[in-house]
What does this fold into?
Amino acid sequence: MHSFLDFDQARDIAKKHGTPVLVLSKQKVIEKYSKLSNALPRVSLYYALKANPYVEVVRILNEVGSNFDICSIGEFNTLQGLQINTGNGRVIYTNPTKKEEEIRFIHGQGIDLFVFDNSLELRKIAQSAPGGNVLLRLEVSNPHCVVNLSYKFGAEAGEAEPLISEAVSLGLNVKGLCFHVGSQTANPQPYVDTIMTCKKIADRLTSRGIRLDLLDIGGGFPVAYTSSIMPIEKFCEPINEALDNFPPDTRIIAEPGRFLVGDAIVLITKVIGKSRRKDVQWYFLDDGLYNSFSGKVYDNTDYNIISEKTRNREQCVVAGPTCDSFDVISTKKVLPELEMGDLLLVTSMGAYTSCSASEFNCHKRTPTVVVD
Ligand SMILES: Cc1ncc(COP(=O)(O)O)c(C=O)c1O
It folds into this structure.
Protein backbone atom coordinates (compact mmCIF):
# COMPACT_ATOMS: atom_id res chain seq x y z
CA MET A 1 0.00 0.00 0.00
CA HIS A 2 2.79 2.39 0.95
CA SER A 3 5.11 3.20 -1.94
CA PHE A 4 8.84 3.04 -1.22
CA LEU A 5 9.23 5.58 -4.04
CA ASP A 6 7.99 9.16 -3.84
CA PHE A 7 6.86 11.14 -6.87
CA ASP A 8 10.10 13.12 -7.18
CA GLN A 9 12.08 9.88 -7.33
CA ALA A 10 9.52 8.47 -9.77
CA ARG A 11 9.89 11.51 -12.05
CA ASP A 12 13.68 11.06 -12.10
CA ILE A 13 13.39 7.37 -12.93
CA ALA A 14 10.74 8.05 -15.61
CA LYS A 15 12.98 10.71 -17.15
CA LYS A 16 15.86 8.27 -17.33
CA HIS A 17 14.04 5.06 -18.32
CA GLY A 18 10.70 6.21 -19.73
CA THR A 19 7.38 4.70 -18.71
CA PRO A 20 5.98 2.26 -17.95
CA VAL A 21 8.74 0.99 -15.72
CA LEU A 22 8.83 -1.43 -12.77
CA VAL A 23 11.16 -0.37 -9.97
CA LEU A 24 12.68 -3.09 -7.81
CA SER A 25 13.97 -2.13 -4.36
CA LYS A 26 16.96 -4.26 -3.42
CA GLN A 27 16.63 -3.25 0.25
CA LYS A 28 13.01 -4.27 0.33
CA VAL A 29 13.76 -7.80 -0.92
CA ILE A 30 16.51 -8.13 1.69
CA GLU A 31 14.17 -6.81 4.39
CA LYS A 32 11.36 -9.20 3.43
CA TYR A 33 13.70 -12.20 3.42
CA SER A 34 15.05 -11.27 6.80
CA LYS A 35 11.57 -10.65 8.25
CA LEU A 36 10.25 -14.02 7.16
CA SER A 37 13.41 -15.85 8.28
CA ASN A 38 13.13 -14.23 11.71
CA ALA A 39 9.40 -14.88 11.96
CA LEU A 40 9.91 -18.59 11.16
CA PRO A 41 13.15 -19.43 13.01
CA ARG A 42 12.85 -23.16 12.46
CA VAL A 43 12.11 -22.93 8.76
CA SER A 44 14.55 -22.86 5.80
CA LEU A 45 13.27 -20.68 2.98
CA TYR A 46 13.20 -21.74 -0.68
CA TYR A 47 12.24 -18.79 -2.88
CA ALA A 48 9.58 -19.89 -5.40
CA LEU A 49 10.93 -18.45 -8.66
CA LYS A 50 7.52 -18.58 -10.29
CA ALA A 51 6.47 -15.43 -8.41
CA ASN A 52 9.14 -13.40 -10.17
CA PRO A 53 12.07 -15.02 -11.98
CA TYR A 54 13.71 -11.67 -12.83
CA VAL A 55 17.44 -12.27 -12.53
CA GLU A 56 18.10 -9.40 -10.12
CA VAL A 57 15.46 -10.71 -7.70
CA VAL A 58 17.07 -14.14 -7.81
CA ARG A 59 20.57 -12.68 -7.49
CA ILE A 60 19.63 -10.65 -4.40
CA LEU A 61 17.96 -13.62 -2.73
CA ASN A 62 20.96 -15.79 -3.52
CA GLU A 63 23.23 -13.20 -1.90
CA VAL A 64 21.20 -13.27 1.32
CA GLY A 65 21.38 -17.06 1.43
CA SER A 66 17.97 -18.14 0.15
CA ASN A 67 17.43 -21.59 -1.29
CA PHE A 68 15.24 -22.01 -4.37
CA ASP A 69 12.03 -23.75 -5.34
CA ILE A 70 11.73 -24.33 -9.07
CA CYS A 71 9.05 -25.86 -11.28
CA SER A 72 10.51 -25.93 -14.79
CA ILE A 73 13.73 -26.39 -16.72
CA GLY A 74 13.52 -22.69 -17.61
CA GLU A 75 13.66 -21.77 -13.93
CA PHE A 76 16.63 -24.12 -13.51
CA ASN A 77 18.35 -22.36 -16.44
CA THR A 78 17.81 -19.01 -14.69
CA LEU A 79 19.70 -20.31 -11.64
CA GLN A 80 22.45 -21.73 -13.83
CA GLY A 81 22.73 -18.48 -15.77
CA LEU A 82 23.49 -16.77 -12.47
CA GLN A 83 26.03 -19.46 -11.59
CA ILE A 84 24.09 -20.35 -8.49
CA ASN A 85 25.13 -23.59 -6.89
CA THR A 86 22.15 -25.86 -7.50
CA GLY A 87 23.62 -28.84 -5.62
CA ASN A 88 23.75 -29.56 -1.88
CA GLY A 89 19.96 -29.55 -1.50
CA ARG A 90 19.71 -25.81 -2.22
CA VAL A 91 17.10 -26.38 -4.92
CA ILE A 92 13.89 -28.38 -4.85
CA TYR A 93 11.63 -29.26 -7.77
CA THR A 94 8.04 -28.95 -6.68
CA ASN A 95 5.92 -29.18 -9.81
CA PRO A 96 3.56 -32.06 -8.97
CA THR A 97 3.07 -33.03 -12.65
CA LYS A 98 6.07 -33.12 -14.94
CA LYS A 99 7.43 -34.75 -18.08
CA GLU A 100 9.68 -37.77 -17.62
CA GLU A 101 12.49 -36.14 -19.60
CA GLU A 102 12.18 -33.12 -17.29
CA ILE A 103 12.59 -35.35 -14.21
CA ARG A 104 15.59 -37.09 -15.82
CA PHE A 105 17.24 -33.79 -16.72
CA ILE A 106 16.68 -32.17 -13.34
CA HIS A 107 17.80 -35.29 -11.46
CA GLY A 108 20.87 -35.47 -13.68
CA GLN A 109 21.72 -31.93 -12.54
CA GLY A 110 21.97 -33.10 -8.94
CA ILE A 111 18.57 -31.87 -7.75
CA ASP A 112 16.98 -34.64 -5.77
CA LEU A 113 13.69 -33.66 -4.19
CA PHE A 114 10.54 -34.11 -6.25
CA VAL A 115 6.88 -33.70 -5.41
CA PHE A 116 4.09 -36.15 -6.29
CA ASP A 117 0.39 -36.34 -5.53
CA ASN A 118 -0.70 -39.50 -7.38
CA SER A 119 0.40 -42.97 -8.28
CA LEU A 120 1.18 -42.31 -11.96
CA GLU A 121 3.50 -39.46 -11.01
CA LEU A 122 5.25 -41.71 -8.52
CA ARG A 123 5.93 -44.28 -11.20
CA LYS A 124 7.29 -41.58 -13.51
CA ILE A 125 9.69 -40.43 -10.78
CA ALA A 126 10.72 -44.01 -9.94
CA GLN A 127 11.48 -44.57 -13.62
CA SER A 128 13.32 -41.31 -14.33
CA ALA A 129 14.97 -40.63 -10.96
CA PRO A 130 15.41 -44.13 -9.49
CA GLY A 131 15.86 -44.09 -5.72
CA GLY A 132 15.07 -40.36 -5.67
CA ASN A 133 13.73 -38.33 -2.76
CA VAL A 134 10.06 -37.43 -2.81
CA LEU A 135 7.51 -35.35 -0.94
CA LEU A 136 3.80 -36.11 -1.01
CA ARG A 137 1.71 -33.00 -1.64
CA LEU A 138 -1.54 -32.85 0.29
CA GLU A 139 -4.54 -30.80 -0.74
CA VAL A 140 -5.73 -27.99 1.52
CA SER A 141 -9.26 -26.74 1.80
CA ASN A 142 -8.94 -22.99 2.37
CA PRO A 143 -11.78 -20.70 1.35
CA HIS A 144 -9.76 -17.68 2.55
CA CYS A 145 -6.95 -17.79 0.00
CA VAL A 146 -7.04 -15.58 -3.07
CA VAL A 147 -5.50 -18.21 -5.38
CA ASN A 148 -6.54 -21.79 -4.66
CA LEU A 149 -3.61 -24.06 -5.43
CA SER A 150 -5.37 -27.22 -4.30
CA TYR A 151 -7.86 -27.08 -7.16
CA LYS A 152 -5.30 -28.69 -9.43
CA PHE A 153 -2.93 -30.37 -6.98
CA GLY A 154 -2.73 -32.37 -3.78
CA ALA A 155 -3.75 -35.82 -2.57
CA GLU A 156 -6.45 -36.21 0.04
CA ALA A 157 -5.21 -36.99 3.55
CA GLY A 158 -6.81 -40.45 3.31
CA GLU A 159 -4.68 -41.28 0.26
CA ALA A 160 -1.39 -40.47 2.01
CA GLU A 161 -0.60 -43.86 3.55
CA PRO A 162 -1.31 -46.00 0.45
CA LEU A 163 0.62 -43.55 -1.78
CA ILE A 164 3.59 -43.46 0.57
CA SER A 165 3.60 -47.26 0.84
CA GLU A 166 3.61 -47.43 -2.95
CA ALA A 167 6.51 -44.97 -3.12
CA VAL A 168 8.50 -47.14 -0.71
CA SER A 169 7.77 -50.26 -2.72
CA LEU A 170 8.99 -48.46 -5.87
CA GLY A 171 12.34 -47.86 -4.16
CA LEU A 172 11.82 -44.12 -3.64
CA ASN A 173 12.90 -42.35 -0.50
CA VAL A 174 9.89 -40.61 1.01
CA LYS A 175 11.30 -37.57 2.79
CA GLY A 176 8.00 -36.15 3.94
CA LEU A 177 4.88 -34.15 3.22
CA CYS A 178 4.21 -30.80 1.62
CA PHE A 179 1.24 -28.54 0.99
CA HIS A 180 0.33 -25.08 -0.25
CA VAL A 181 -2.47 -23.35 1.63
CA GLY A 182 -3.22 -21.18 -1.42
CA SER A 183 -1.56 -17.95 -2.41
CA GLN A 184 -2.25 -14.71 -0.54
CA THR A 185 -3.73 -16.37 2.53
CA ALA A 186 -4.44 -13.63 5.05
CA ASN A 187 -5.15 -15.93 8.02
CA PRO A 188 -2.63 -18.40 9.49
CA GLN A 189 -5.24 -20.96 10.56
CA PRO A 190 -5.10 -23.07 7.35
CA TYR A 191 -1.35 -23.56 7.96
CA VAL A 192 -2.02 -24.65 11.54
CA ASP A 193 -4.78 -27.08 10.52
CA THR A 194 -2.73 -28.62 7.73
CA ILE A 195 0.40 -28.91 9.87
CA MET A 196 -1.69 -30.85 12.41
CA THR A 197 -3.07 -33.10 9.63
CA CYS A 198 0.52 -33.76 8.54
CA LYS A 199 1.47 -34.59 12.13
CA LYS A 200 -1.29 -37.21 12.33
CA ILE A 201 -0.16 -38.79 9.06
CA ALA A 202 3.49 -38.73 10.17
CA ASP A 203 2.58 -40.41 13.50
CA ARG A 204 0.62 -43.17 11.76
CA LEU A 205 3.53 -43.80 9.40
CA THR A 206 6.05 -43.83 12.26
CA SER A 207 4.01 -46.55 13.98
CA ARG A 208 4.44 -48.55 10.75
CA GLY A 209 8.19 -47.99 10.70
CA ILE A 210 8.21 -45.24 8.03
CA ARG A 211 9.84 -42.10 9.37
CA LEU A 212 9.27 -38.76 7.65
CA ASP A 213 12.04 -36.27 8.28
CA LEU A 214 10.90 -33.25 6.27
CA LEU A 215 7.82 -31.02 6.26
CA ASP A 216 7.36 -28.39 3.57
CA ILE A 217 4.76 -25.77 4.49
CA GLY A 218 4.72 -24.19 1.01
CA GLY A 219 4.06 -20.55 0.16
CA GLY A 220 0.95 -18.43 0.59
CA PHE A 221 2.29 -15.72 2.95
CA PRO A 222 0.43 -12.50 2.13
CA VAL A 223 1.41 -8.97 1.12
CA ALA A 224 -0.71 -5.80 1.32
CA TYR A 225 -2.49 -4.72 -1.86
CA THR A 226 -5.53 -2.51 -1.29
CA SER A 227 -5.94 -3.29 2.41
CA SER A 228 -3.52 -3.93 5.23
CA ILE A 229 -2.52 -7.39 6.44
CA MET A 230 -1.41 -8.93 9.73
CA PRO A 231 2.26 -8.27 10.61
CA ILE A 232 4.26 -11.34 9.59
CA GLU A 233 5.60 -11.92 13.14
CA LYS A 234 2.04 -12.25 14.44
CA PHE A 235 0.96 -14.27 11.42
CA CYS A 236 3.72 -16.81 12.02
CA GLU A 237 3.21 -17.22 15.81
CA PRO A 238 0.52 -19.93 15.58
CA ILE A 239 2.39 -21.59 12.71
CA ASN A 240 5.51 -21.88 14.90
CA GLU A 241 3.43 -23.29 17.74
CA ALA A 242 1.96 -25.92 15.43
CA LEU A 243 5.45 -26.79 14.16
CA ASP A 244 6.57 -27.41 17.75
CA ASN A 245 4.54 -30.62 17.56
CA PHE A 246 7.20 -32.04 15.26
CA PRO A 247 10.39 -33.41 16.81
CA PRO A 248 13.38 -31.04 16.61
CA ASP A 249 15.14 -33.26 14.08
CA THR A 250 12.29 -32.91 11.55
CA ARG A 251 13.51 -30.44 8.96
CA ILE A 252 10.96 -27.75 8.10
CA ILE A 253 11.07 -25.78 4.87
CA ALA A 254 8.82 -23.24 3.11
CA GLU A 255 8.48 -22.02 -0.47
CA PRO A 256 7.54 -18.33 -0.25
CA GLY A 257 7.16 -16.43 -3.51
CA ARG A 258 4.81 -13.48 -3.19
CA PHE A 259 5.90 -12.47 0.32
CA LEU A 260 9.55 -11.99 -0.65
CA VAL A 261 9.02 -9.90 -3.76
CA GLY A 262 5.38 -8.74 -3.94
CA ASP A 263 5.84 -5.34 -2.32
CA ALA A 264 9.44 -4.89 -3.44
CA ILE A 265 8.35 -3.52 -6.83
CA VAL A 266 6.45 -0.33 -7.66
CA LEU A 267 5.18 0.38 -11.16
CA ILE A 268 5.48 3.87 -12.61
CA THR A 269 2.88 4.36 -15.31
CA LYS A 270 1.58 7.41 -17.15
CA VAL A 271 -1.83 8.71 -18.19
CA ILE A 272 -1.87 8.58 -22.01
CA GLY A 273 -5.53 9.32 -22.67
CA LYS A 274 -8.85 10.25 -21.09
CA SER A 275 -12.45 10.26 -22.13
CA ARG A 276 -15.88 10.72 -20.59
CA ARG A 277 -18.12 7.84 -21.65
CA LYS A 278 -21.79 7.83 -20.54
CA ASP A 279 -20.85 10.26 -17.79
CA VAL A 280 -18.15 7.96 -16.44
CA GLN A 281 -14.56 9.16 -16.42
CA TRP A 282 -12.06 6.88 -18.20
CA TYR A 283 -8.28 7.08 -17.90
CA PHE A 284 -5.97 5.19 -20.26
CA LEU A 285 -2.50 4.23 -18.96
CA ASP A 286 0.62 3.09 -20.77
CA ASP A 287 0.57 -0.26 -18.92
CA GLY A 288 -2.39 -2.62 -18.77
CA LEU A 289 -3.96 -6.01 -18.33
CA TYR A 290 -1.91 -7.68 -21.06
CA ASN A 291 1.28 -6.40 -19.46
CA SER A 292 2.16 -5.70 -15.79
CA PHE A 293 -1.47 -5.81 -14.64
CA SER A 294 -1.80 -9.42 -15.88
CA GLY A 295 -2.10 -10.42 -12.23
CA LYS A 296 -5.60 -8.99 -12.31
CA VAL A 297 -6.47 -11.90 -14.62
CA TYR A 298 -4.19 -14.70 -13.44
CA ASP A 299 -3.67 -13.75 -9.81
CA ASN A 300 -7.07 -12.33 -8.97
CA THR A 301 -5.44 -9.15 -7.70
CA ASP A 302 -6.69 -5.58 -7.46
CA TYR A 303 -3.81 -3.11 -7.26
CA ASN A 304 -3.39 0.12 -5.35
CA ILE A 305 -3.00 3.08 -7.75
CA ILE A 306 -1.61 6.29 -6.24
CA SER A 307 -1.71 9.81 -7.65
CA GLU A 308 -0.01 12.83 -6.11
CA LYS A 309 -3.11 14.89 -6.89
CA THR A 310 -6.07 15.13 -4.54
CA ARG A 311 -8.79 17.28 -6.16
CA ASN A 312 -12.14 16.19 -7.59
CA ARG A 313 -11.93 12.56 -6.64
CA GLU A 314 -14.48 10.34 -8.34
CA GLN A 315 -15.02 6.71 -9.26
CA CYS A 316 -13.57 6.03 -12.67
CA VAL A 317 -12.51 3.35 -15.11
CA VAL A 318 -8.78 2.72 -15.55
CA ALA A 319 -7.77 0.99 -18.76
CA GLY A 320 -4.58 -0.15 -20.47
CA PRO A 321 -3.08 0.92 -23.79
CA THR A 322 -4.02 -1.97 -26.11
CA CYS A 323 -6.74 -1.94 -28.75
CA ASP A 324 -8.87 -4.40 -26.80
CA SER A 325 -11.89 -3.64 -24.65
CA PHE A 326 -10.86 -6.44 -22.27
CA ASP A 327 -7.85 -4.31 -21.31
CA VAL A 328 -9.54 -2.67 -18.33
CA ILE A 329 -7.59 -2.57 -15.07
CA SER A 330 -10.46 -1.44 -12.85
CA THR A 331 -13.97 -0.07 -13.16
CA LYS A 332 -14.10 1.12 -9.56
CA LYS A 333 -10.98 3.11 -8.79
CA VAL A 334 -11.58 6.36 -6.98
CA LEU A 335 -9.01 8.81 -8.36
CA PRO A 336 -8.54 12.59 -8.40
CA GLU A 337 -8.87 14.47 -11.66
CA LEU A 338 -5.89 13.44 -13.79
CA GLU A 339 -4.31 15.00 -16.84
CA MET A 340 -2.38 13.62 -19.79
CA GLY A 341 1.20 12.82 -18.80
CA ASP A 342 0.47 12.50 -15.06
CA LEU A 343 2.50 9.78 -13.41
CA LEU A 344 0.83 7.17 -11.22
CA LEU A 345 2.49 4.76 -8.80
CA VAL A 346 1.14 1.25 -8.40
CA THR A 347 2.34 -0.59 -5.30
CA SER A 348 2.95 -4.31 -4.67
CA MET A 349 3.63 -5.07 -8.32
CA GLY A 350 6.39 -7.62 -7.65
CA ALA A 351 4.69 -11.00 -7.72
CA TYR A 352 2.76 -12.65 -10.55
CA THR A 353 2.85 -9.47 -12.64
CA SER A 354 5.67 -9.14 -15.18
CA CYS A 355 6.15 -12.93 -15.28
CA SER A 356 2.66 -13.47 -16.68
CA ALA A 357 2.71 -10.37 -18.92
CA SER A 358 2.40 -10.76 -22.68
CA GLU A 359 3.48 -8.70 -25.68
CA PHE A 360 -0.05 -8.43 -27.07
CA ASN A 361 -0.39 -5.71 -29.70
CA CYS A 362 3.43 -5.82 -29.89
CA HIS A 363 3.73 -3.72 -26.75
CA LYS A 364 7.03 -4.59 -25.12
CA ARG A 365 6.87 -6.09 -21.63
CA THR A 366 7.50 -3.38 -19.06
CA PRO A 367 11.19 -3.38 -18.07
CA THR A 368 12.37 -3.63 -14.47
CA VAL A 369 15.06 -1.35 -13.05
CA VAL A 370 16.76 -1.80 -9.70
CA VAL A 371 17.22 0.82 -6.99
CA ASP A 372 19.03 0.32 -3.71
C1 LIG B 1 4.42 -25.31 -5.47
C2 LIG B 1 4.40 -23.86 -5.16
N1 LIG B 1 5.23 -23.40 -4.19
C3 LIG B 1 5.28 -22.09 -3.87
C4 LIG B 1 4.50 -21.17 -4.52
C5 LIG B 1 4.60 -19.73 -4.12
O1 LIG B 1 3.47 -19.34 -3.49
P1 LIG B 1 3.29 -17.87 -2.89
O2 LIG B 1 3.68 -16.93 -3.96
O3 LIG B 1 1.86 -17.80 -2.53
O4 LIG B 1 4.16 -17.76 -1.71
C6 LIG B 1 3.58 -21.60 -5.50
C7 LIG B 1 2.71 -20.67 -6.18
O5 LIG B 1 2.05 -20.95 -7.17
C8 LIG B 1 3.54 -22.99 -5.83
O6 LIG B 1 2.73 -23.46 -6.78
